[in-house]
UniProtKB/TrEMBL annotation:
<keyword id="KW-0812">Transmembrane</keyword>
<feature type="transmembrane region" description="Helical">
    <location>
        <begin position="15"/>
        <end position="40"/>
    </location>
</feature>
<dbReference type="InterPro" id="IPR036249">
    <property type="entry name" value="Thioredoxin-like_sf"/>
</dbReference>
<protein>
    <recommendedName>
        <fullName>Thioredoxin domain-containing protein</fullName>
    </recommendedName>
</protein>
<dbReference type="Pfam" id="PF18312">
    <property type="entry name" value="ScsC_N"/>
</dbReference>
<keyword id="KW-1015">Disulfide bond</keyword>
<dbReference type="InterPro" id="IPR012336">
    <property type="entry name" value="Thioredoxin-like_fold"/>
</dbReference>
<keyword id="KW-0676">Redox-active center</keyword>
<comment type="similarity">
    <text>Belongs to the thioredoxin family. DsbA subfamily.</text>
</comment>
<dbReference type="InterPro" id="IPR041205">
    <property type="entry name" value="ScsC_N"/>
</dbReference>
<feature type="domain" description="Thioredoxin">
    <location>
        <begin position="78"/>
        <end position="265"/>
    </location>
</feature>
<dbReference type="Pfam" id="PF13462">
    <property type="entry name" value="Thioredoxin_4"/>
</dbReference>
<dbReference type="InterPro" id="IPR013766">
    <property type="entry name" value="Thioredoxin_domain"/>
</dbReference>
<keyword id="KW-0560">Oxidoreductase</keyword>
<keyword id="KW-0732">Signal</keyword>
<comment type="function">
    <text>May be required for disulfide bond formation in some proteins.</text>
</comment>
<keyword id="KW-1133">Transmembrane helix</keyword>
Length: 265
């Protein structure tokens, strides 16, 4: 049976280190591993004296606590971003290569851009001209992967986002994906299943085969695995770009995409 005094000491030390970290992060502008080790090795008297000093300072300057908490949150967010980025790099082959995502460009291009999008996403529609311009101006050096990410359907697999994504994959099987994709993204008004099929009929395709390809059960497995992997690397919204393993979240504009593309060239 553990002794209560020892348990109390064990619980106070992390709290002491946390308080000291908050204090030193603001006062000193940072906290090194050496400083943390030094704090952990201090004896009881030194710890008590430092605790009193910190307590007195915080009572006199209570506004420092929100600042310190903000600093620590920023560090935690950076650490989480680095963790997710590392995971995206490790799983890059799975992200950039799959049998269902339509691909435009040279398979051996030095830069691969993977765009996660939803056809009902207003931000994706707003960012659509960025993709068009990027392929127009730099298409000879880019392999562009269109990653279906139908996450806006409250209805689940029966929703319009899934329906449009399945249609896009089916259209890619007959060679007219990019123009079909453009028409879906620039469709005026609310996108619905009837509109998706009306757009498909504008193309010289075998509609029976088109519907058969849409109903391929393997597509749902693709959607599920795509969403699962995306969440593992921290992708929850659209559009999100992964460029040679580097993640760019949100519709940040053409310049932001181009900068990352050029950085990877």
């Amino acid at each position: 049976m553990p002794h209560a005094p020892d348990a109390q000491k064990g619980s106070r030390l992390p709290l002491f280190l946390a308080i000291s970290a908050l204090f030193l992060a603001i006062i000193g502008g940072g906290l090194s591993l050496v400083t943390l080790r030094a704090l952990a090795m201090m004896d009881g008297g030194d710890k008590a004296q430092l605790e009193q000093t910190i307590r007195a300072y915080l009572l006199e300057n209570p506004e420092i606590l929100p600042q310190a908490i903000a600093v620590l949150r920023q560090r935690e967010e950076r650490a989480e971003q680095q963790r997710l980025q590392s995971f995206a790099t490790d799983r890059w082959e799975d992200i950039s290569q799959d049998p269902f995502s339509p691909v435009v460009g040279d398979e051996n291009a030095p830069v691969t851009v993977v765009e996660y999008y939803d056809y009902r996403c207003s931000f994706c529609r707003r960012a659509h001209p960025d993709m068009v311009r990027l392929l127009d101006e730099h298409g000879d050096t880019i392999r562009y992967v269109f990653k279906q990410f139908p996450v806006l359907d409250r209805e689940g697999p029966d929703g319009v986002s899934h329906f449009a994504a399945r249609a896009a994959i089916a259209m890619s099987r007959q060679g007219d994906f990019l123009e079909f994709h453009d028409k879906l993204m620039t469709h005026e008004g609310r996108l619905h299943k009837g509109a998706v099929l009306d757009i498909a009929r504008e193309f010289d395709v075998d509609m029976a085969q088109f519907r058969k390809d849409m109903d391929n059960p393997a597509i749902m497995d693709y959607f599920n695995s795509t969403i699962q992997l995306a969440r593992m690397i921290g992708i929850t919204g659209t559009p999100t770009y992964v460029i040679n393993g580097k993640v760019l979240a949100g519709a940040q504009g053409y310049d932001a995409i181009l900068a990352l593309v050029q950085d990877q060239s």
